[in-house]
């Protein structure tokens, strides 16, 4: 529930799930707070009010070196027995109350460490009671606060500018408002197009053509012309003796008085008469047998060697030709 806060008033900071999730220390929840200024975007500046479990400042900070820590707290005037002044500077803040606030039944102190809280987390004091600091007491609190935080400034309420009072004559007959006359529309002036600077085209750089490299033609190897094969002179054919052609034997007429008879077969040749001599072998067989048996003619040996030389020359010629073409 949102309330309307007032500068210098005391409110209760509730301990709710919403306030626990806010950026407020859990030790400050469920305590009364003093509002220092106006509301700014739903947020107010406050000071915590604590009682130290009904202890005095001298009991809470008994050491001599705790003077600065004691200066951070200002006591509030409460009920009977709760009106002890500050042990160092003797200050005691008076407060205006309505009803019977429970916080005044003990000695309470204002902590001079400001923090901000949303207004929705604040509520009124119990029993419909109120606690308000006078303006001079609130100014004293802010003065002591600036000893620790010199740049502190309380939120101020937005004030409207003062309105000018209207006279009776002005309220009775207001001045007519002047009717604005239409202004002639200015004719736009056509500006000449800006002169463009002609683009400077750099001269084309001649292409560098590398000199043509002459093609290297390997020297041709002259074809080897084979040497002319010397003509082989063939020896004249040897003179051979004309061999007489064999003369076949002529059939003989039968000499008997039997004219139509046939002579019996003889192993020596054609039919012969009885008691007749066999014919002699021809000169052809006789000559061959004599030549084979008696090889005494030197011309035959010479012709044999000539034939062998001729065939060897032909073989050498063929060999050289094949080697030349297939190398």
Automatic annotation (TrEMBL):
Biased composition of type Polar residues is found at 256-265
Indicate, by first and last residue, each region the UniProt record lists as having compositional bias (Pro residues). Answer: 177-221, 233-252
Q: Where is this region: Disordered?
A: 153-300
Which domain of life does this protein belong to?
Eukaryota
**Low complexity: compositionally biased ranges:** 222-232
Protein's UniProt name: Uncharacterized protein
Give the source species.
Answer: Choiromyces venosus 120613-1
């Amino acid at each position: 529930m949102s309330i309307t806060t007032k500068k210098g008033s005391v409110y209760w900071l509730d301990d709710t799930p919403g306030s626990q999730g806010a950026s407020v220390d859990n030790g400050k929840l469920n305590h009364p707070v003093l509002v220092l200024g106006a509301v700014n975007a739903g947020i107010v500046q406050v000071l915590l009010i604590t009682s130290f479990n009904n202890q005095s400042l001298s009991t809470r900070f008994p050491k001599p070196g705790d003077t600065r820590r004691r200066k951070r707290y200002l006591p509030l005037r409460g009920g009977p027995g709760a009106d002890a002044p500050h042990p160092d500077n003797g200050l005691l803040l008076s407060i205006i109350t309505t009803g019977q606030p429970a916080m005044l039944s003990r000695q309470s102190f204002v902590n001079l460490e400001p923090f901000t809280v949303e207004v929705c987390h604040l509520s009124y004091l119990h029993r419909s009671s109120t606690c308000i600091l006078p303006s001079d007491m609130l100014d004293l609190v802010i003065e002591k606060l600036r000893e620790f935080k010199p740049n502190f400034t309380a939120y101020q309420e937005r004030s409207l500018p003062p309105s000018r009072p209207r006279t009776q004559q002005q309220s009775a007959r207001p001045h007519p408002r002047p009717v604005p006359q239409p202004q002639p529309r200015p004719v736009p002036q056509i500006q000449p197009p800006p002169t463009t600077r002609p683009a400077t085209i750099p001269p084309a750089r001649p292409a560098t053509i590398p000199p043509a490299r002459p093609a290297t033609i390997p020297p041709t190897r002259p074809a080897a012309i084979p040497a002319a094969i010397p003509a082989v002179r063939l020896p004249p054919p040897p003179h051979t003796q004309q061999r007489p052609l064999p003369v076949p034997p002529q059939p003989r007429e039968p000499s008997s008085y039997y004219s139509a008879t046939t002579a019996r077969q003889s192993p020596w040749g054609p039919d012969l008469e009885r008691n007749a001599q066999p014919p002699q072998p021809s000169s052809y067989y006789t000559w061959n047998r004599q030549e084979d048996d008696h090889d005494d003619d030197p011309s035959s040996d010479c012709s044999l060697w000539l034939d062998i030389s001729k065939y060897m020359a032909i073989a050498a010629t063929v060999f050289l030709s094949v080697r030349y073409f297939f190398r």
